[in-house]
Write a structure and sequence with these properties.
Blueprint lengths: L12 H7 L21 H14 L3 E7 L1 E2 L11 E2 L6 H15 L8 E9 L7 H14 L1 E2 L6 E6 L8 H8 L3 E7 L3 H7 L5 H14 L3 E8 L6 H13 L4 E6 L21 H17 L3 E4 L2 E3 L4 H8 L3 E3 L2 E3 L5 E5 L4 E4 L2 E5 L3 H9 L5 E6 L2 H16 L1 E3 H8 L3 H4 L4 H9 L3 E3 L3 E4 L7 H6 L17
Parallel strand pairs: 1-4, 1-14, 2-3, 4-5, 4-6, 6-7, 7-8, 8-9
Antiparallel strand pairs: 9-11, 10-11, 12-13, 15-16, 16-17, 18-20, 19-20
Length: 463
């Protein structure tokens, strides 16, 4: 079987139509809908104390929920406000939360990865941002000399002069920018107007300051999009030569996300147009030299994600694809999700309740899950599929002491169907996702998801 990196994606429209159903994105396993309230502060404290013995490096995530404007497509946990003064008490409570964590955690462990997400992290005005950065530096052991993977999501419309320089001085070396679409009609329809010139200016400044990675996000399937309009957006974006590109499918779930009710069903591209947009985008990106990493993500051949995939060390977590598989992920802020040892935990999603819990001196965890041995095995299987497009059965036996065909006997009929339809190749030693199957990798992973049949959950469609 050939290396996954050598494969080109084959866009098989008939196959995609047959398999395009709803399913998880697998930033975790079990996925977040299966977290439960039986996992609380006590269980999180035990996980933190247990992680000290393992002495794994740390990854830190900070959720900054505030946005000045509401983007109608958005499914993130956010607080829409023009009151920038709300940033000050939020930063103060993040400091409280870090101090509480470190009541139970060895703070000498190095921070290999740091990420600010949202919301809009650059909603914070510079005095508040500086206080947050100083607080992180006070509580944790950050890596010097650009050794860490420290990134932040940037909204160019909410970026004060000097903020990028402040971030770079602190050690940030990656930025991610939401673009979504550059067509003015589409931007108005989703209430997010952002010019190409503004985006290009931010990228140029970041590169001049020495940020070593720029990632851009696009969304296909937004209202009023056409293949021609999206092609123009993609050409303009490729000209900026981002190191990484994400091309997400818009998940229209107005019953779950009320803001999406402002998007008219009749404005959403027909399924055949969405497929054409995706097919043409993939062809354009591959022609421009981008490698399909998986799950909507593309990267340049020299990017760290591409190199990690080649070496078999790529990993996937709540921040997307990562090169830091061996870290414990600590999460701060309302709704943030941590991954510590064999546990996941999510903070309270409501701003005032999250703050009140901290003011009472408690970690603001709302729910979570302790993974079983079987969960850990299936998480490994799903992670390797999403990162490598391949499973080595002999390695599974060495690591977990199982015979693949015996342990997953209940999955074999579904795998045989995938094999018959050309999504996978499988023999006695390996499972390999084919070029036709790579776009449907979520569907391949769903075969191994033991939770899917037992709970009705609203997921986005695979394509």
């Amino acid at each position: 079987m050939s290396s996954a990196l050598e494969q080109k994606i084959i866009f098989d429209a008939d196959l995609i139509r047959r398999y395009d159903q709803a399913g998880p994105r697998y930033t975790s396993y079990p996925t977040a809908p299966h977290f439960h309230s039986d996992f609380g502060e006590k269980q999180l404290i035990q996980a933190l104390q247990g992680s000290n013995a393992q002495a794994r490096p740390l990854s830190l995530y900070f959720h900054i929920p505030f946005c000045e404007n509401l983007c109608f497509y958005c499914a993130c946990t956010k607080v829409v406000t023009r009151h920038h003064e709300w940033g000050s008490p939020y930063v103060a409570r993040l400091d409280q939360e870090m101090a509480l964590y470190l009541s139970y955690l060895d703070s000498s462990r190095p921070v290999e990865q740091l990420h600010f997400g949202g919301g809009t992290p650059t909603f914070l005005r510079q005095p508040d941002l500086r206080r947050l950065l100083e607080s992180i530096h006070h509580h944790f052991q950050l890596l010097a000399d650009d050794q860490g993977e420290y990134g932040i999501e940037i909204d160019p419309r909410a970026l004060e002069p000097g903020t990028l320089s402040l971030l770079r001085d602190f050690g940030f070396n990656r930025i991610s920018i939401g673009v979504q679409d550059l067509d003015s009609a589409v931007q108005k329809a989703v209430h997010r107007e952002q010019s190409l010139e503004l985006t290009a200016t931010v990228i140029a400044e970041a590169r001049s300051l020495g940020f070593r990675s720029v990632s851009l996000d696009l969304i296909y399937g937004l209202p009023l999009q056409t293949p021609e309009r999206f092609a123009a957006t993609l050409d303009a974006v490729i000209a900026l030569r981002p190191d990484r590109l994400s091309v997400f499918n818009y998940a229209h779930l107005p019953e779950c996300f009320p803001a999406q009710k402002r998007i008219l069903d009749g404005d959403i591209p027909a399924p055949e147009n969405k497929l054409r947009i995706l097919a043409e985008s993939i062809a354009t990106l591959q022609e421009a030299g981008y490698v399909y990493i998986g799950m909507d993500h593309f990267a340049l051949p020299e990017d760290e994600l591409t190199l990690a995939q080649r070496e078999g060390s790529l990993y996937r977590n709540f921040q997307g694809y990562s090169t830091h598989a061996g870290s414990d992920l600590l999460a701060f802020g309302m709704s943030a999700i941590a991954m510590i040892g064999s546990t996941y935990s999510q903070n309270i999603k409501e701003l005032d309740a999250w703050g009140a819990r901290l003011d009472q001196g408690h970690l603001p965890v709302e729910r979570g899950v302790q993974l079983s041995t079987e969960d850990l095995l299936r998480r490994h299987v799903i992670n390797r599929l999403t990162c490598d497009f391949r499973l080595d059965f002999n390695r599974l036996q060495q690591q977990y002491g199982i015979d693949f065909h015996t342990h997953f006997r209940d999955c074999l009929p579904a795998l045989e169907r995938l094999k018959k339809d050309g999504l996978i190749q499988m023999d006695s030693d390996n499972l390999q996702v084919t070029p036709r199957g790579r776009l449907l990798i979520r569907h391949v992973c769903m075969v191994f998801d033991a939770y899917l049949p037992h709970k009705a959950v609203h997921y986005s469609r695979v394509i």
